[in-house]
Amino acid sequence: MLVTSPPRMALTTDMPATSLTDAFRRDPVQAFRSVRARTLALTEPLAIEDWNVQSMPDASPVKWHVAHTAWFFETFVLRPHAPAYRPLDERYTLLFNSYYVGVGDQHPRERRGLLTRPTVPEVLRYREHVDAAVIDLLGSGDEAAVRSLVELGLHHEQQHQELVLTDLLHAFAQNPMRPCYRSPRADPRATTVSDAARPHRAATSIHAPTAQQWFAFDGGLVDIGHTGDGFAYDNESPRHRVWIDPFALAARPVGCAEYIAFIQDGGYHRPELWMSAGWDAVKSGGWEAPLYWQDEGDRWLETTLGGVREVDGAAPVSHVSWYEADAYARWAGARLPTEAEWELACRDLPVVGNFVESEALRPRGSVGRTDGVAQAFGDVWEWTASAYAPYPGFRAAGGAIGEYNGKFMCNQYVLRGGSCVTPASHMRATYRNYFAPDTRWQFSGLRLARKP
Amino acid sequence: MLVTSPPRMALTTDMPATSLTDAFRRDPVQAFRSVRARTLALTEPLAIEDWNVQSMPDASPVKWHVAHTAWFFETFVLRPHAPAYRPLDERYTLLFNSYYVGVGDQHPRERRGLLTRPTVPEVLRYREHVDAAVIDLLGSGDEAAVRSLVELGLHHEQQHQELVLTDLLHAFAQNPMRPCYRSPRADPRATTVSDAARPHRAATSIHAPTAQQWFAFDGGLVDIGHTGDGFAYDNESPRHRVWIDPFALAARPVGCAEYIAFIQDGGYHRPELWMSAGWDAVKSGGWEAPLYWQDEGDRWLETTLGGVREVDGAAPVSHVSWYEADAYARWAGARLPTEAEWELACRDLPVVGNFVESEALRPRGSVGRTDGVAQAFGDVWEWTASAYAPYPGFRAAGGAIGEYNGKFMCNQYVLRGGSCVTPASHMRATYRNYFAPDTRWQFSGLRLARKP
Amino acid sequence: MLVTSPPRMALTTDMPATSLTDAFRRDPVQAFRSVRARTLALTEPLAIEDWNVQSMPDASPVKWHVAHTAWFFETFVLRPHAPAYRPLDERYTLLFNSYYVGVGDQHPRERRGLLTRPTVPEVLRYREHVDAAVIDLLGSGDEAAVRSLVELGLHHEQQHQELVLTDLLHAFAQNPMRPCYRSPRADPRATTVSDAARPHRAATSIHAPTAQQWFAFDGGLVDIGHTGDGFAYDNESPRHRVWIDPFALAARPVGCAEYIAFIQDGGYHRPELWMSAGWDAVKSGGWEAPLYWQDEGDRWLETTLGGVREVDGAAPVSHVSWYEADAYARWAGARLPTEAEWELACRDLPVVGNFVESEALRPRGSVGRTDGVAQAFGDVWEWTASAYAPYPGFRAAGGAIGEYNGKFMCNQYVLRGGSCVTPASHMRATYRNYFAPDTRWQFSGLRLARKP
Amino acid sequence: MLVTSPPRMALTTDMPATSLTDAFRRDPVQAFRSVRARTLALTEPLAIEDWNVQSMPDASPVKWHVAHTAWFFETFVLRPHAPAYRPLDERYTLLFNSYYVGVGDQHPRERRGLLTRPTVPEVLRYREHVDAAVIDLLGSGDEAAVRSLVELGLHHEQQHQELVLTDLLHAFAQNPMRPCYRSPRADPRATTVSDAARPHRAATSIHAPTAQQWFAFDGGLVDIGHTGDGFAYDNESPRHRVWIDPFALAARPVGCAEYIAFIQDGGYHRPELWMSAGWDAVKSGGWEAPLYWQDEGDRWLETTLGGVREVDGAAPVSHVSWYEADAYARWAGARLPTEAEWELACRDLPVVGNFVESEALRPRGSVGRTDGVAQAFGDVWEWTASAYAPYPGFRAAGGAIGEYNGKFMCNQYVLRGGSCVTPASHMRATYRNYFAPDTRWQFSGLRLARKP
Predict the structure, then answer these.
(1) Tens of pLDDT along A294-312?
(2) What is the per-residue DSSP string for A265-333?
(3) Which residue of chain A comes nearest to D175, CA vs CA?
(4) Cβ-Cβ contacts under 8 Å, C279 against chain D
(5) How do residues D361-417 score in pLDDT, each as one tens digit?
(6) How many Cβ atoms from other residues are within 10 Å of residue C186's Cβ?
(7) Euclidean distance between CA atoms A409 and A393, whole angstroms
(8) CB contact under 8 A, D409 and C275
(9) Does chain B touch chain D (at least 3 C-beta pairs within 8 Å)?
């Protein structure tokens, strides 16, 4: 068998991180090429076997992500808008449909890992086929609908870039050999564990974050949701009014050292700290710590995209479910912020932080004392107290594309701010991510709120 | 074996329906006796076998309800406050604990139906034992804490009175013989199905409700939640401010004839109408109509507490999940109201309606044209768009009693207004009931909201 | 509700234990009455709730057993042979059909416990209705087919008499209160545990059985299976020839003290002693001892039909699966006998032993030294090494009655000899009982075989 | 990533097909090289993704098979017998242990497909590392124990060669694209389906096999089991005496056209033809035909290693479970032979047939009229009526190697004769294969027996 290696490509790009909207308006074809190339760049360290594995129904194989993001452009841009377009293989319509029932049947989600064919080279060919047609179409005129759909497709692609990394981490963590996706860039604060099987038993000190600071907000009648003419998902609209009581917000996310204190105080063994459903999850899942952590007696190790490492006490805790976030907050005498509080507190901050472009691929130690709320963007998605629901007056788009966000508006909680595997240009203050409350494989952490 | 029949007792009582708080303040012992007697009155039509059956983990045997409500007084009133109290059997502490981990272990919920012992007479003896001690304690002094806990216990008892009926209906519906709990009082509008096995095939006309009316509300900054000094559960507090956009609310709940139109329009076969999780529930559960309905081709039958009957098109649809309520609303071009909207619209209405005291034991045909929102109380619990969450500043009570409501504040939706099996004196406009979105065995229906 | 108590009746009867065939030929009506009455006599100690409980899909409620045995006569005797017979309720045809697909649909096995109706009095009425018609039919002529079917029905009834007791024991064992079915007759060797919740911690000596003896058999070409004109099930025929190598058989079943030695030697923690499927069962079921045993540190308790008692080391071990029997035999350097070996060794022994008529309702201490194989009948069913398969030339009866035994001839193992809850007149040396290898709720034990 | 392609190699070899024993005795090193090379030759048509997929817990990834067969030599030959041997990676001990608890823990069977690492090149390196050491050891002396273990390892390897093909077929059949493993050699009788998605609707005639012939056998006292000094597995011993009644055996396996007649006669819808457990499997699995068949209305298609093809009526039916074989036999008025009958009838036939070396990779049309039992070897494994059990006097080998066969001797049925994916040199008349009665992914068919 001959495998065409994907082109080697630096993970970093020349695209201004903070504005995919600007980049796309300036040069749609260039923005398209750039975002599409980033997806393939992520696959550079992989063996072919790594492309095809599916470690749980919630995760998908890298190959499927790579094909599905092409399918998205084919289905929503090319088929309706490029009359001359000829699909490469009609069978891909079913294979790479994620959940759009308006498009037709889907290959069962939990069986994506069984698709050894099409092979990686065939999927890359599919991608090239689609890319050529999209670039052609973008160059052929100035149809606003096409541009709008391509822009949506690029944001969609960025979401899958994040999933490629979270899903790979989950798959690698199932392998007793604990493969390393990519060695992290040098970080003087980190302790690399050279031999996970036999960790040194010497006592190690956990770096603690600086003491938590709190910042007060008046609240009041506030407008929440997307505004302006940049890109946003439909679920960020319509902008609407909410009443917010005065509150205080922590300066930074909860750190690992703080979370270890919760564990050591019996956090996972005290039902009074948990929602009833959370306590059920603790027991049925045998939870004793965040996902990927292992207790080595005198220290905590965690499986990361850079291999097995010692937990960094100063870094934001990650891979905790909403249940754990909620229980921690109760233990700490605080609570999770609502999404409106979070948005009010963070909407004027610059969207900078430890995003995927830093190549750290894990949350990093927190900042020191600050003058205000910090570390809101990047590092970890922050669970909020808000159940994911439509904003008042929300209307999904017509047709299958309307399934993008709207049909998931129940049984989930909103997270804000992006993580260390989110592309920087993907993020904004009004962005609403959402996952079920038992979700742990995302880079999800928390920030505390309380009365001022 | 000799079974002591529970005392025959009319279901109706002389207690003023609208104020358990008033009744309790006037004469706590009399209120206690009255509420307690009502529970036993509900068991009057039962065979002993009916007391013990558990048809699903969410439902409990009648015998267990009867024992657990005694356990509640024993555990939270007598043990802490009546030093001389001697439990009848220490083993009941575990057997009849529902979910209070602060009290200790629980017999597994899904195994309650396996408890053939203690027998019904033994449980009635337990109940008498507890009752005597509570009455003794109430008469012995004026301790506010005791009175407050007894009052809570009576509201708790009323909740279980409702569950006795919903759980019996579910159990009877599993039996191909379709036992009848109690023949309903004569109702000229109802068509009784004399022989469910061979229904007459003559075409029958579905009584349609009067055309829906809409009433507009301005909204604005509104205070929501319990106020005053009457009893309320902890989850109705604290009273707090919310912003409500202008909205319109339907005059009455959605009727069965309207719901049949939804079915006939393919409602259960059109995924675009459903939340994704709701669509999964439709497929995995094989849902084609509300729970307890069966399609007889030319008419719909439903299993009720009064046996198998023809569906009454004019009555509010019941036994639909939140998913079905949400899908119906979308189909109808409307939406579910938020709980704040519901409370604002209904809080000045008198708390009267088709409650359990009517002995109809099913939702009844709707009112005709009205001057405002009607049928808010009784008939069916109305699903709202609001995920069940703590009100801002909510604090659960200390100790095990704090588990009453607080630990369930996730993964559920709020319902308002009470149903045809709710005791009238149990209801108020700020009352928040809550169930998971796939729940169908409660008397749950819906009312539409939309832009004004 | 008024419950008509079943007639009080002594468990023992005047029917000659060793020959239901003889009794039936002498006086079919009397034999019919006698066997039928024994079923009801078994229910004498029960509360009504006990009649209706189903503790697992493999077990059935007593009420269902009582109704099903009437159904059997109605379906296979009255409907085809008594033209004037009028069923009491046609709906019972489905409700009380066990597994005869040739008769029609069945109420799902695992949902039998949900049938609170018909009530116990109604089922007893059904039984009386059927009994009268059968007695009428038996008196009306001399049709051989009828007599043969009634005789089969009586043996069928006896099987369900045994199941009534095994299923009740299982249900009672699920109740933390550990109800006692009936206090055993005085037995000087037994230690009754007066207070299971707080057992005395004094050291107690386990009565050990006498040392095991072995008896050698030559084997050779042997005819196996039913012969003569007495009653036998179809699966005991045709009599056929088998070759048996020389072997030795233990004088008595393995005793509890011997089994405790296996446990203490790590039997449940040494995979090399187990079939692979057995080891899976040990791990998934958390098996550490026979079903119903509990380890009290200095002694073993077991839940019996006479309540919680101390394990009697001298009594045959019971409630072990085939997997446990097989593992024990391997540990002991022996093996299980084949069913042909068992039959050859035991076919000339008198069919006497600790059957249900002794009212011990548990296996009893073993005999002392003997002159040959002993304790083959009664006490415990003895697992054999033989997978349950048709004898060469086996043909099931035509029609639905042919489903009685034939369709279960896979995935099960043969047991021989009857138990302490088997009616004595039900047993014979050629009798083949069969259960899946993970079955534990029957009174199943083992006897060792080896090379001579 | 660079992938080292496995060496291209013809599937056929120069090793005498009928005697691995002879070849091994003549030149152990050459026999070792030859068998090991055959495993890699099977992987020649694969994409790397195909190596890693696991389509169900019963199947394993090709990569795992390739690694596990190396592990077998490392664990049972090199570690105990080659003191200087240094394992390539100690972590492989756990990863590639199938089920030998005596060796230590195992990576969970159902999670083998998650092992993307070690990669294919790394596994091939592991294999080379082990091969070199085994060849070294074989050349270094004449230790009988080593030779015996290596010989066992080669037979073990041949079993996994068969599993590579059955597991790949299962995986490919899960993919809607229906990949083709290898186009079959030209076969004039076969109809290749060029376009599975749109099959031609023209009526096609099913080739029927020649009419079935029957051959009678006297039976009597017969010695069964392995004899002589060639290689055999432990479960073929000890040779022992059995009594066999006279019987007749069909000349050839049941053909597809005959099986289609069973389907058309309602075979899958008539519970009276099935074992009770088989009927449950039919309903729960939705079985309507052999695994891999699809009903195209006017013809049957099947997924094969050569892609989707029309069913060949003259070829032995394959991919049927024991339940289906048993039901078919009952429908046909016959039965399955016992394994002793099969062995008696076939032991003097030459071990030739459609084995893997033919490269047909599917059962082929049957022979015409014959003078005796034919087609016993190759084509399809033939289910017998015999539950898999130890032969009288069976003793497993000591140590972990004793787990090879012995611990699976329950809940399975014996199959005889080998299939179209079995290496010819692997087969002999006494060979006992075994699978659970619901197994369908093997090339399993049946041959009928009856009274003479």
Answers:
(1) 999 999 999 999 999 999 9
(2) TTGGG-GGGS-HHHHHHHHHHT-SSSTTEEE-SSSEEEEETTEEEE--TTSBP-S--HHHHHHHHHHTT
(3) A115
(4) 101, 407
(5) 999 987 788 999 999 999 999 999 999 999 999 998 888 899 999 999 999 999 999
(6) 7
(7) 14
(8) yes
(9) no
